[in-house]
Amino acid sequence: MDTLELLLKGERPNMPEKEIKLKRLSKACGGDIVFRLRALSFNRVAEIKNSHAGGDMEIHILLAGVVSPDLKSEELKQKYNAVTPSEMIKTMLLPGEIEDISREIEKLSGYRVTTVEEVKKK
Fold this sequence. Notes:
The chain has helices at residues 3-9, 23-29, 42-51, 57-65, 74-79, 85-92, 95-108, and strands spanning 17-21, 34-38, 66-68. By secondary structure, it is mainly alpha-helical. It has a single domain (14-108), classed as rbstp2171, CATH 3.30.2220. A three-stranded antiparallel beta sheet has the order 1-2-3. Helix 3 (42-51) packs antiparallel against helix 4 (57-65) and helix 4 crosses helix 7. It starts with a helix and ends in a 14-residue tail after the last helix. It holds the Pfam family Phage_TAC_5. This is Phage XkdN-like protein.
């Protein structure tokens, strides 16, 4: 079977997901704080890059890629005295945590990892 036939026969892959535990927040809250992350599509990444090229791109990648908990919830914004989800993230998380979570979402999306390999001729 050639490559085209394999692509046509195979299932369309789901977006990869993973769960991460936030150590500092888990300690502060007295229980495991777990975020479920999902890869972003090419179009979503391009949209974020175009809209937020001047700054806060990592925050918007984080907001788009965190499936759970709902970081846009009114309750969280109220808890952290924030008007927007971006503002809430900046208050709730440390800069390094924002970068780490954003980087994990980028890895799930195929960035910062090797996703191809050379085919060696026999």
